[in-house]
Design a protein that fits this description.
Oligomer: homodimer
Number of strands of chain A: 13
Largest interface: A-B, 40 and 40 residues
Helix content of chain A: 25-40%
Shape of chain A: globular
Radius of gyration of chain A: 17 Å
Strand content of chain A: 15-25%
Strand order of the largest sheet of chain A: 5-8-2-1-11-12-13
Order of helices and strands of chain A: EHHEHEEHEEEHEEEHEHHEE
CATH class of chain A: Alpha Beta
Distance between the termini of chain A: 17 Å
CATH architecture of chain A: 3-Layer(aba) Sandwich
Chain lengths: ~260, ~260
Amino acid sequence: MEKLTLIKVGGKIVEETDTLNSLLDDFVRLCGAKVLVHGGGRSATTVATQLGITTQMIDGRRVTDEAMLRVVTMVYGGLVNKQIVAGLQQRGLNALGLTGADMNYMLSEKRPAVPIDYGFVGDVKKVDGAALADLIAKNIVPVLAPLTHDGKGNLLNTNADTIAGEAAKALARYFDVTLVYCFEKKGVLLDETDENSVIPHLTENEFERLKAQNVIVGGMVPKLTNAFAALKAGVRAVVITKADDITKNVGTRIE
Amino acid sequence: MEKLTLIKVGGKIVEETDTLNSLLDDFVRLCGAKVLVHGGGRSATTVATQLGITTQMIDGRRVTDEAMLRVVTMVYGGLVNKQIVAGLQQRGLNALGLTGADMNYMLSEKRPAVPIDYGFVGDVKKVDGAALADLIAKNIVPVLAPLTHDGKGNLLNTNADTIAGEAAKALARYFDVTLVYCFEKKGVLLDETDENSVIPHLTENEFERLKAQNVIVGGMVPKLTNAFAALKAGVRAVVITKADDITKNVGTRIE
């Protein structure tokens, strides 16, 4: 099967011109089929603040009321997504920006309000991998915004890591998929204060052991749990690395 | 050739839930291949105001400085476009929202700053009708936002009437195209104060005569000039009608 690299980058990288340009330069140099998934939370918070809308977070996750849904639809679906698409076109890559509503490629349902009401947030139900694969076969590069829809006319805010994992799993039927999560550090660290303590390869047993020892903690735990789930669903490898390093063979590799 | 209807609707219709829903219900009922082009100027002005950005208009056209470009990218490419796409998916139409940067389907160049500096506004240079036709052949309904790009990484604000006309001309190689401009009145009126004075058919000679007599004035003049240019470029018919009437055989028909 053809190799495909799916890169997920967070808001910090894509929201500043210098880091975005550097990322896009690297992204263009990746060989084979590719997909880019982006965040945009910082810009959403900035625009919300400018509009007088308060950002409420619970456990690091955004609460998306109706006003915030309008903001994330503008920022993720418009501002951030279209700037990336224009930047890739400038570099000769035929990019196409998508939310889950576009071509109905990712359908979700609104998360139940119990135990925590996150508002207009979607849990993914169905991904149309064939639709994405069709585009990629035509040398189109999908650029995925962290928005899905419920099929009832509502857009839903959806975590970009989740979008990346779900898209990778759906594409694994058509491609040999490597899923790359860009992270602010060089990879999964044995010692959080030492950037040179990157774990180059991680097995699920080792992950469980390091989690039990509180070496791997916080937001890295769900990221890695999703990574192992992606492998079980057919994704070839998951890499956790710095955005600067996506063209290098470094970071933490899980396969 | 297969029939294709390209509907252009302005901001007023797509920015209010009731009129948008009614339009989408009608749009779904249209037979054959279809494309929807939307504006969004009112929402852009509202969001700009909320963000403390002043909207400057010259001859009814928006001046798009860098701050305003961010606003229209958010509002046209995100908010309005994605709400329409989600609404069409809800109605079973497989919609895909596009700016000119997406799939590089509409390339433009920044309008010269002389005689009037409109800022980041694009004049269309090249339309990839084949890319749109490919999507339509797969039963995908393109939803076109009034944004293009210059191939140098910049998005450019582009009049929705122009997007509609250029897309219609590019699609005329593949389809029997009817271009429908939704208008606040029932069509081109012989007497602006009388909604019953719609001119059912208009020839270019008649248009020139009525223009010389100042019966047809204002924004209708460029709209009709573009309409006749579209016919010469292979578009089968141009219809000017009320958004409520797109499924009826009424309004002013030019062919």
